[in-house]
Amino acid sequence: MPDEINFNDPTPLYEQIEKSIKRKIEMGYLLPGDPIGSQNDLSKEFKVSVITVKKALSDLVNEGILFTRVGKGTYVADQTQKRIGITKQKTIGLVLRDIKHPFFSMVVHGIEERAYELGYNILLSSSSNKIEKEESQISHFKEIGVDGLIIASLSLEYRATDYIQKIHNENFPYIMVSYMHDPDYWYVGSDQEIGGFIATEHLIKTGYKSIGYVHIGKGNLLSEVRKNGYYRALNEYNVPYDSKLLFFLGTENFDSGSDRFQLGYEFGKTFKSLEKKPDALFIYSDLTALGFEQAALEAGISIPDEVALVGFDDLEMARYASIPLTTVNQSAEKIGRRAVEIIEKRINGSDIGNRTILKPSLIIRESCGAKKKAAGGLINLRGATI
Q1: Are residues 197 and 321 in the same domain?
Q2: Which of 63, 187, 292, 309 yields a CA-CA distance of 20 to 30 A from 7?
Q3: In whole angstroms, what is the distance from residue 181 CA to residue 159 CA?
Q4: Helix H or strand E segment including 92
Q5: What is the pLDDT of residues 64-109, one digit of tens each?
Q6: 226 within 8 A of 260, measured Cβ to Cβ
């Protein structure tokens, strides 16, 4: 039976495809269990985009007329039996590298809230900082039939892991919420370089001339991107760049499971003995900054008088530190909510952009010294978030 689409008909194309498939089933051309063809094949047959085909198939699956076998295809459902399974429950698989990480805990909160509002269940797993476990969890979620995946990957490389590449090439609905530098992949997050820029710019405007950057390992691409923002701010404000003010913590091949607080603490213990000490530090993450702060205070170093600090992430604990930490807010909960919204659109076949970049903001507290200088009339904090 030929497939016919009337492009002059005002009826949406996906609805015409749905009617055509239903008609084939009613007339016995397609029987229960029969495959209906790949999305690419149907796209060619109907002379429409793959996105239009996906929308039609998604509607028919939701009606129970078709069902999907992940990685295998779409088939005609048996209307005499009710299929019971995870695919009928609108489910998103969430793969985290570390469920205890405070930043990703905030992301998860946003995911859960938005998923509940949109009627999705969330299946949560932690890869416990093991890349092989991350891959097995992705595979397991696909096998049991989740509708989409939200992934916080362990990978710190420019390119996606083989497993991420595989689901990307399959056009399976996924979104990364951990940093993904490669522009071809689906990602939602904050502008990391802008975050580094505004952190460093704030220290410059507060009056510091010698500003260091605390880098988490040379293998950490995310830390390198934030450093680029640091460098750009120095350049734009004509502050001389000094490589001796770059401090690399951890090993050459940075382990994403390393204790960032401990790394910061160890650096704080050695700060007094540095041959060249900066007046201020922009530190890769809040956890590292808080570790540094604790060690510095134990060593009798005054913050911000002897060294000012700015972190990155705006963790809840940052506001309750002994010296409340100035930091860059990434809108973690908003990232989580947007991730769910993007997954839903992908599941429904909507044509959307693959990268969603949110603008970070600066949260000013006591660790940078700006409040103290503002109280003395030395700087103006108008418009800042305090």
Answers
A1: yes
A2: 63
A3: 7
A4: strand 91-96
A5: 788 776 556 788 887 654 444 444 568 999 988 776 778 888 998 8
A6: no
Q: How many domains does one find in the chain?
A: 3
Least confident of 133-137, 263-267, 349-353: 133-137
Pair 158, 213 in one domain? no
Whether residue 287 sits in one domain with residue 151? no
**DSSP helix, strand, coil percent of the chain (3-state; round to 5):** 45, 15, 40
Same domain, 371 and 235: yes
Higher pLDDT, residue 38 or 190: 190
Q: What is the largest CA-CA distance in the chain?
A: 84
**Where do we find the tokens 């092989």?**
132
Residue 298 lies in a domain: yes
Q: Is residue 381 situated within a structural domain?
A: no
pLDDT per residue over 43-72, tens digit each?
888 888 888 888 888 778 777 788 776 556
Is the same domain home to 312 and 345? Answer: no
What is the Cα–Cα distance from 282 to 61, expressed in whole angstroms? 51
E strand or H helix at 125: strand 121-126
- Residue type for position 242: D
Query: Confidence band (pLDDT; 50, 70, 90) for 343?
Result: very high
Range of the domain at 170: 86-189+333-359
pLDDT at 200: 98
* Stated pTM of the model: 0.74
DSSP assignment of 6-72 equals -TTSSS-HHHHHHHHHHHHHHTTSS-TT-B---HHHHHHHHTS-HHHHHHHHHHHHHTTSEEEETTT
CA-to-CA distance for 3 and 287, rounded, in angstroms? Answer: 59
Residues 143 and 196 in one domain: no
Same domain as 214, residue 173: no
